[in-house]
Structures are given as C-alpha cells and as structure tokens.
C-alpha cells in the first residue's frame, strides 16, 4: 500500500499530511538521492502554479534537494507541460511541479518528471517513498562546498512560448480568429494569451489575475460556463479553457457549446490520418472515453485502444506500443511527437490548425462524432469496499452486459482517493442504461447497509 503517491503524484490539503513542508523537504532529498549517482550536474527543475501554498513548498523542496548536494533551477509559475519541456531543454536531472491541478486553492500536490520529461513510473515513486520512510539518506549529508545551490531561470516562460509556437504550422496564422481564453487564474495566465496573440489572434483573456486563492474558482476547465457565455456575447470563433496547471483543455464552439476531449481526439485523429502521421492508425484513450469515439475512428479507418483512467497510463501505453496520439475525455490530450505529457495550450493549437486547414467552424468539425448516451453515478460507502464483496453484484453485472451486447458497455470502479464506487453505463437506449446504473448502485447501497 503506497503511503504518499496516488494516481498523479502526491496530493492533499496544503500544510496537512502529506502536503507539509516536512514531507516536501524529504521528497526533495529523495529525488536528489536517486539522481545524484547519475547526475549530469545540471540539477533539478522546480516549477509551480499560482497557489498561495506553493511558496512554502517550493522552498522546502529546494532545501531538501540542495541538502543532498544537487543544484536547483527555479522557474516560478509555469504550466505542468512547460516544466516538463524545461526539464528536457535544460538537460536537467529531473523536474518537479508543485500543483494540485484542478483542485481548489487550499489543496496542493507534487508531480515529478524524469530527465526525459516523462512522469515517473510507479516503481520509482515507490523507491522515493521507501527512502523517505527509511534512514538510508541520513548516511549522506554533504558539507561545505558540496551542498547544492539554487538559481532562477529567468527566461523559462519565453522558452516555453517559443516551443509552443513552433508546434503550430509555420505557414499558418490566426489573424482571422477571435479566441476566448479562460486561464483559471492558474499557471497558463502568463503564457497562453501571449502564444495566441503572437500568432495573430484577437484574444479575450479571462481569469488571468491570480491572487493565490482564486485558482479554479468558478472558472477554467472545470467551470467552462464563463468561457461559453463570453464566446456567445463576444461572437468569438472558439473558447479554450485550461485547468490550474495547464495540462487539460476544454473547448466550446462558436455557439458556446462544449466540445469535450473525445470530440477533439476524433477531429485531430482524422487530420493525422489524412497526413499519414497517426502511428499504427491508433488513438489511445481511457476506459472513460465514449463509445462514439470508437465508432467514429472505425468509420475513418482508425483504431481505439483503452487504458486505465489517468493520462500517465495513456502515455505509458503510447510509449510501450509505439503510438503517438491519445488522451482523456476530460481534456488531457497528448501529442507525443511534440510533448511528453498532456498540454492544454498545445492541444488548442493543434485543434486550431485543423480548423484553419479545413476552413470550417468547430461546430461543423465536431459532427464527426456522435456521443452515445452515458450515465455516471457514484455511491459513497462507509468504508472502502470491493465489488467482489457485494452479494450478487458480479452475476448481475454479467447479465446486464449480455443484455447490452455490443451496443453498450458498463464500467464499475472504486475511487482511488475516497470510499466511493463509480458506476458508468453507456448505450443507445438512455432509459435502459439509467435503469441498469440504478440497479447496480442499489446493490452497492444494500451491501453498505449490511
């Protein structure tokens, strides 16, 4: 059982376990301990989003790293994918992001990238935990001139902006586009407006005044209503909303209608297929992606493969099997030929490039895929439980799956962070899938009352 790391790094309420300065310092020491033997002498990059608690955690991480004789490069507020980029660009030994992504400001988290810009595999996270809860690091305490030092990388934002612009086709410009950007008062606030303006777009920027406490508050990818309303009012061409650390993108068309990650994947996959750039004609998505995406890909000659929930598992599958495009319905989109992780700004640029080439509005492009009706219900239980413990659950699930046959699917999974069983049913008959979800949820509730 892992004590610190979850599905996407360490996360929790800031200044309470595990998101304390004491743990952050130990995480810094452990990362430095692991990279020290193979260090190329460039040090470890630390970046953050705009949360108030980032200041204390940044200093604790830097202190821990320096105490083990490894240097630190501080980049300040920058999107998570930007920190991954700087890590590889600076030939750093590792990169650390202080962010809780889409969570409210009182939460925070720590994500770690290896020197190649990819998130650490589970086995290395387990090694970090083992070091923290052992005394192994106490044997190495550099002194005098052997301790590390910290320096600030002043041009990190500029480097990242140049990189992003270079992912957009060089023969195209956005000078006839009006784009609404909602930066969630998060890490994209100082980057996204400049990227799109320098490519010629007229930009209406929302949520670009972070104060340490307003990140993700009624704005950004989790609350796209503000973006959609602004697009309608301003008669803009498209709206792009990012989450707090900028690795997620939610879009609305020119009518203010939300376009989710599945539709964006379908649009971009068709363009990549036309260019013969979609490796093995395959898109990698998670079990949460709509069946409509699978149908759309099959109609255009593509293939959908699925992974567990989490963009890190999408990336692991892509790297293991040689694929180059994938993502999540929630808006994590990975263009592996350009980036090692999900990047909301980069994904927005790729979508806009398709719109430019096709000379069609997003509302028309989004008709490439028709979503199957999907119902998702959560059942909170008193304690964590496995569905295998629930009487008659497995047999009922099998019976319902047989009834759906190939025209739908059922996904049941426990939450990784709380005592909740999630039930998702998808199919062409909306009433039928609602009844099925209710039947399964009732079995969970009955078991919880026993």
TrEMBL record:
> Which key words tag this protein in UniProt?
Isomerase, Magnesium, Metal-binding, Phosphoprotein
User: Which EC number(s) does UniProt give?
Assistant: 5.4.2.10
User: For Mg(2+), which residues are the binding ones?
Assistant: 101, 243, 245, 247
Q: How is the cofactor bound?
A: Binds 1 Mg(2+) ion per subunit.
Active site at 101
Cofactor(s) needed, names only, are:
Mg(2+)
Primary enzyme class = isomerase
Reaction equation(s) it catalyzes: alpha-D-glucosamine 1-phosphate = D-glucosamine 6-phosphate
Alpha-D-phosphohexomutase C-terminal domain boundaries: 376-442
Quote the InterPro entries the UniProt record gives.
A-D-PHexomutase_a/b/a-I (IPR005844), A-D-PHexomutase_a/b/a-I/II/III (IPR016055), A-D-PHexomutase_a/b/a-II (IPR005845), A-D-PHexomutase_a/b/a-III (IPR005846), A-D-PHexomutase_C (IPR005843), A-D-PHexomutase_C_sf (IPR036900), A-D-PHexomutase_CS (IPR016066), Alpha-D-phosphohexomutase_SF (IPR005841)
> Where on the chain is Phosphoserine found, per UniProt?
101
Q: How is it modified after translation?
A: Activated by phosphorylation.
What top-level branch of life does the organism fall under? Answer: Bacteria
Question: Where does the secretion signal sit in this chain?
Answer: none
Boundaries of each Alpha-D-phosphohexomutase alpha/beta/alpha domain copy?
Answer: 2-136, 159-256, 260-370
Protein role: Catalyzes the conversion of glucosamine-6-phosphate to glucosamine-1-phosphate.
Query: What is the similarity comment for this entry?
Result: Belongs to the phosphohexose mutase family.
Protein name stated in the entry? Phosphoglucosamine mutase
Q: Which species is this record about?
A: Desulfofustis limnaeus
């Amino acid at each position: 059982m892992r004590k610190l790391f979850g599905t996407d790094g360490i996360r929790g309420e800031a200044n309470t376990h595990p998101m304390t300065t004491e743990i952050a310092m130990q995480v810094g020491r452990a990362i430095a301990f692991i990279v020290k033997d193979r260090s190329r002498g460039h040090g470890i990059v630390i970046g953050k989003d705009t949360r108030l608690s980032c200041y204390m955690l940044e200093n604790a991480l830097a202190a821990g790293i320096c105490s083990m004789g490894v240097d630190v490069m501080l980049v300040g507020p920058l999107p998570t994918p930007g920190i991954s980029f700087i890590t590889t660009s600076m030939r750093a030994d590792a990169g650390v992001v202080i962010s809780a992504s889409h969570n409210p400001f009182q939460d925070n988290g720590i994500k770690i990238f290896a020197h190649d810009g990819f998130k650490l595999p589970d086995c290395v996270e387990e090694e970090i935990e083992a070091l923290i809860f052992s005394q192994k690091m106490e044997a190495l305490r550099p002194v005098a001139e052997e301790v590390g030092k910290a320096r600030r990388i002043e041009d990190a934002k500029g480097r990242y902006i140049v990189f992003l612009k270079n992912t957009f086709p060089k023969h195209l410009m956005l000078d006839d586009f009006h784009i609404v950007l909602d930066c969630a008062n998060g890490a994209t606030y100082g980057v996204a407006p400049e990227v799109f303006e320098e490519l010629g777009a007229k930009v209406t920027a929302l949520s670009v005044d972070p104060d340490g406490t307003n990140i993700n508050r009624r704005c950004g990818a989790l609350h796209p209503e503000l973006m959609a309303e602004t697009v309608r009012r301003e008669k803009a061409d498209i709206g792009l909303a990012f989450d707090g650390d900028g690795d997620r993108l939610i879009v609305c068309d020119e009518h203010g209608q939300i376009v989710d990650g599945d539709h964006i994947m379908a649009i971009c996959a068709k363009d990549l297929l036309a260019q013969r750039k979609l490796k093995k004609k395959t898109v990698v998505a998670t079990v949460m992606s709509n069946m409509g995406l699978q149908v759309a890909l099959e109609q255009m000659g593509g293939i959908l493969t699925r992974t567990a929930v989490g963009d890190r598992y999408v990336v692991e599958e892509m790297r293991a099997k040689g694929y180059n495009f994938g993502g999540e319905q929630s808006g994590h989109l990975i263009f592996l030929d350009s980036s090692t992780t999900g990047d909301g700004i980069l994904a927005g640029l790729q979508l806009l490039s398709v719109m430019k080439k096709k000379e069609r509005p997003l509302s028309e492009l989004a008709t490439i895929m028709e979503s199957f009706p999907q119902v998702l219900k959560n059942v909170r239980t008193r304690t964590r439980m496995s569905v295998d413990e629930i009487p008659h659950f497995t047999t009922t699930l099998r019976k319902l799956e047989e009834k759906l046959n190939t025209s739908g699917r059922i996904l049941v999974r426990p939450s990784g962070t709380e005592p909740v069983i999630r039930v998702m049913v998808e199919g062409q008959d909306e009433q039928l899938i609602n009844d099925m979800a209710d039947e399964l949820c009732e079995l969970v509730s009955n078991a919880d009352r026993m």
